[in-house]
Specification:
Blueprint (H helix, E strand, L loop, with lengths): L1 E3 L2 E6 L6 H11 L12 H11 L6 E7 L5 E12 L7 E6 L14 E2 L4 H13 L5 E7 L8 H4 L5 E16 L4 H6 L3 H16 L4 E6 L6 H15 L15 H16 L3 E8 L2 E11 L2 E9 L8 H16 L3 E6 L3 H4 L4 E13 L1 H29 L12
Parallel strand pairs: 5-7, 12-13
Antiparallel strand pairs: 1-2, 2-3, 3-4, 4-5, 4-6, 7-14, 8-13, 8-14, 9-10, 10-11, 11-12
Helix pairs in contact: 2-8, 6-9, 7-8
Length: 398
């Protein structure tokens, strides 16, 4: 247990939480300010630990309490060995969802605007003294910024910190009714929605959009989502690349356990397009404290021309308005499709820091170089996958 400027940090066992501790955690999750984070809920974190950190000794679940003893923050962390398997570079402490992430996950410390600065300072102080070579922490830009003093009050031989990266999400602020908001949408988005409905109606097929919530979101519905997601990934009729992120068994198993549980807690839903009795498109949504999060989707490629996913996202926005949400978060990675909805960004910055030995500092530098190479290769691969395909040799441009 450690204390920082009135905040006390205690490491607790993830598998031994009492009902009262879970309730306190869930209460804090429901009090998030601004663009809230669905990945900080107790259900999500505990399933993530179960899936990716089987050794309890490597789990560092921290509770941060204020001067009155009230829960002010939860930092779900874990220890990870990084670098080549045969020659590991070092050990780092990072948040759940960082380093071994599920699709579209946003790692973050759970706290509120009132306590954000103090809670992050307390978490930094605990992690920097936890024995790893270094630690990494994401901080939402509206909450705080990493302060040099957080690593300077030490007698260690190699204190350091650095800004590693920024992750931006497109967010749509909500106000008024759907009809009022629709009037302010970009022309191309309104045209896409109009065209989608018209084409479905003119096809002569019976169609409707439905939202599955609560017990309606069962394993069968989740498996149907996986099937359509894989079908969308296999479609080559577009220049954009959408890999099947659920081909990985661990990710699939985690969501099969987790999504129905979240749905019963009103923290997840599946929006489906049903045509002639068959589900042909689906959008997974997560919900937390005034924010609906647009997660991954699936689509039968036969319905590509109907702009089905855009239609489902419009339904999600309407439901968010009816729920009283303040924002819809379209997930990390701004692109043309997301920015048709909004050009407002929610930015989270990643920082690395340590106050260890010079040897630990050299390990961090080695890892940074390897990470930079891998990041470059990934960026090139993504850009190539989403670039227009060249015409076959010998074809004309007409």
């Amino acid at each position: 247990m450690s204390a920082t400027a009135g905040y006390v940090v205690e490491r607790v066992e993830a598998t031994g939480l009492s009902a009262a501790q879970r309730s306190e955690w869930d209460g804090l999750h429901g009090r998030q300010n601004g663009v809230s984070n669905p990945f900080c809920s107790s259900d999500w974190v505990l399933e993530w630990y179960r899936s990716y950190v089987p050794d309890p000794a490597h789990r560092h679940l921290l509770q941060v309490r204020d001067a009155d003893g009230a829960l002010a923050g939860v930092a779900a962390l874990y220890e990870q060995t990084v670098g080549p398997r045969r020659l590991p570079v070092g050990r780092r402490i990072v948040p759940v969802g960082y380093g071994t992430a599920t699709a579209l996950e946003l790692p973050q410390v759970l706290t509120t605007a009132q306590h954000a600065r103090g809670v992050h300072h307390a978490v930094v102080r605990w992690t920097r003294d936890a024995g790893a070579d270094w630690s990494e922490l994401p901080i939402a830009r509206e909450q705080a910024w990493f302060e040099p003093g957080w690593v300077e009050d030490t007698t260690a031989e190699a204190p350091h910190y650095s800004h590693r990266a920024s992750r931006a999400c497109v967010v749509l602020p909500l106000s008024g009714t759907w009809e009022e908001m629709k009037g302010g949408l970009k022309r191309n988005l309104k045209e896409s929605l109009r065209r989608s409905r018209n084409r479905l109606t003119k096809s002569g097929r019976d169609w409707h959009v439905r939202t599955l919530e609560g017990t309606e979101v069962d394993e069968t519905a989740v498996q149907r989502f996986f099937t359509l997601h894989a079908a969308r990934a296999g479609f080559d009729g577009t220049t954009s690349s959408h890999p099947d992120v659920y081909a990985d068994t661990t990710r699939r198993d985690m969501l099969v356990r987790l999504v129905p549980k979240l749905a019963q807690a009103k923290e997840a839903s599946l929006v489906e397009l049903v045509v002639d009795g068959d589900v042909v498109a689906v959008q997974l949504a997560l919900h937390s404290a005034g924010t609906s999060y647009v997660h991954s989707s699936g689509l039968n490629p036969d319905y590509w021309e109907f702009s089905a996913v855009t239609l489902l996202q419009a339904e999600l926005v309407q439901s968010a308005i009816a729920r009283g949400d303040r924002f819809v978060n379209f997930s990390p990675g701004p692109n043309v499709a997301k920015m048709r909805w909004s050009e407002t960004m929610h930015v989270v910055d990643d920082f690395a820091y340590a106050t260890g030995s010079r040897t630990s500092g050299l390990r961090f530098l080695a890892f940074s170089q390897l990470a930079a190479v891998n990041q470059y290769r990934h960026a090139v691969a993504v850009a190539r996958a989403n670039s227009p395909r060249p015409r076959p040799t010998g074809t004309s441009g007409t």
